[in-house]
Specification:
The protein has four helices and twelve strands, in the order H-H-H-E-H-E-E-E-E-E-E-E-E-E-E-E. The chain is mainly beta. A hairpin with a 5-residue loop joins strand 2 (69-77) and strand 3. The protein has helices at 2-9, 20-24, 39-42, 62-67, and strands spanning 50-55, 69-77, 83-85, 90-93, 97-99, 104-107, 115-121, 124-139, 142-157, 160-169, 173-183, 186-199. The chain is 11% helix and 51% strand. The chain starts with a helix and ends with a strand. The protein has one domain: YmcC-like fold (Beta Barrel).
Amino acid sequence: MLASAWHKMRPVRTLPALALALAAGCAHGPAATATGARPSDYFPLAVGNEWVFVDRSPQLSPAEQAVRERKVRILSRDAEGFFHDSSRGELRADADCLRDRLRRLLCAPFETGRRWISVVSVSSTERYEIVAVGERVTTPAGTFHGCIRVRAHNRAGPDTDQVLETTYAPGVGVVRLETFVVVKGAMTPQVKAELKSYRLEGK
């Protein structure tokens, strides 16, 4: 959904693998949990729901960031329960995971350290991990509490990994999305999108 929309705007490759330095910050202490929560609690899917994101990518000037926006609106639902949006995304919230046609994007139970994989093709396996639960995130749309941040990574070459971090707010959906490329341990930010506004009125 949002990831595919922003990948069309900016030259982002597949998803990346994360260097150990990135994971170290979440490797200690007891796991935080969001007890009893379901994937649908973190991404309300209904026809008519709409999110507007602004491009905060570091390559852009403040003036460019101010005018670059992407609107994502859910248009329909098919017989398999997938919701189709205006950016050609397809999402469904099952009891265990939020998923698109190829990937499991957010899976319960929601606790730091929770991991899963999605086999996208014979040559591409994306590895996911919940790296934060209960985060407080501020974007142009406001301040959101109890957020979950998911890190996805995929090996892009012998010395190159690609990383996607997606932050979900309860009752809202994606509030922040960031992508990085890690080459021989050096991390370079690529895309950063933040929620500017949203409207949840679909049925």
